[in-house]
What we know:
Elements: E1 3-9, E2 13-21, H1 24-29, H2 32-47, E3 50-59, E4 62-71, E5 77-86, E6 89-97, H3 106-113
Antiparallel strand pairs: 1-2, 2-6, 3-4, 4-5, 5-6
Amino acid sequence: xxxxxxSADGKTGTWLVGYYDVPPKVLEKKTVEQALEDGRDGSVxxxxxxxxxxxxITVEGNPGRxxxxxxxxxxTIYARSDxxxxxxxxxxxxxxxxVESELSTPxxxxxxxxxxxxx
Length: 119
C-alpha cells in the first residue's frame, strides 16, 4: 500500500495531510464503519497511544472518524486525527502538539474545517 503524506511544522505543532487507497478486497469484506474503526484502532496501536476521544463524523456526505490520541514518549504528544473514506480512498489530516489544549484552538479548528473533497 502506498501512503502519500505531507507535513509542515508550525510554531506550536505539526500539521499532516495524507491519503492511501484502501484495497477493494478490504471493503468487500467490511462495512465502511468497520474500515473506519480499523483505521482508528490501527492509528492507536501503531503509535502505542491512548485513545482520548473518538467520534463518527461526516465530511461533505462522506463517513469518517475524528480521534484524539495521547502519544507516549519523553514529552507527551497529543494528536487530533480526522480520517474520511471517499470512493475507496482514505484521507487523513492531523495536528500534533505537546499541549493538549492546542487541539481545540480556533486556528486548529479552522484547519480541520478547511478540508474539502475535490476528487
